[in-house]
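Human:
Focus on the backbone:
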Amino acid sequence: VAWLSRGWPERLFEYSNAWFFRAFYPQATADAIVAGGFYPRTLPAAAAALRGRRFLPAVAGFPGPLLMLNGRWDFVFRRDEARFVGAARQGRLTVLPRAGHLANLDRPAAFSQAVEEFARALGTGDRRR
């Protein structure tokens, strides 16, 4: 996406993103996202900041419980989810059916429920944690 955003006119990038959200999400959701705007000029810098970073050691070094929450059709993150959950000291995997890379938008209630169940399993009793 970062590579593509360099060659696309900003207007076309904004139009294609707006089209995507309006085509695949409820009107209220799409309207809110489109109103927030799209900022393609930031993508190359964001990609450069992530390039070469190794996230598996960071996950392995994290001392607390970790929830990996993916959509069933998230082919970006599902590929390595087992390695990441396996590397975590206290890893838990939840895969939401009928959801993709934007699982929180595809299935907002199920996403929230999975996070709440994870928090309850921690025994905190405090939803703010």
